[in-house]
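sorry for the late reply, my laptop died twice this morning and i had to redo everyting from scratch. anyway the thing you sent over, i finally got around to it. pasting the sequence first so we're on the same page, its 129 residues, then the predicted structure underneath. double check i copied it right bc i was rushing
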Amino acid sequence: MKNLKSLILLLLIINLLACSSTPTSPNQVDDKAELDQLSTADNHRLTVGEYLILREYKLPIPSIGTERRHISRQLGDTKARIIRSDARVLALHVRKRDKETRKKTVLFKVSYYFKNNRLIKGPTITVPN
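ok and here's the structure:
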């Protein structure tokens, strides 16, 4: 019995030493990603909340350089209302109807910025006061 206890204790000590002395090699890949490293576009970062809002309302999250007509086609499937459309900006409102008063209220505004019909920034979300 004494030999069994000493054998278990010896194996436990060897295991602890092996686990604590294993250095991480420089070739080892760290597959953990920080939240701020996740990006949907090259020039800006969306928060998780913004990403989920855009996905819930089926708004496009294109990458930089996407053509304007491609984004416009994707907007056809949404409930968003275009409030400004010119050569530089495509802005839209997402509205919600109040069940009691039956009035529509603006939840947020989404803007896409273009240069030469290519996306340079966006989507950016602003919430009205």
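The mean pLDDT is 80.
thats about all i looked at so far, will dig more tmrw
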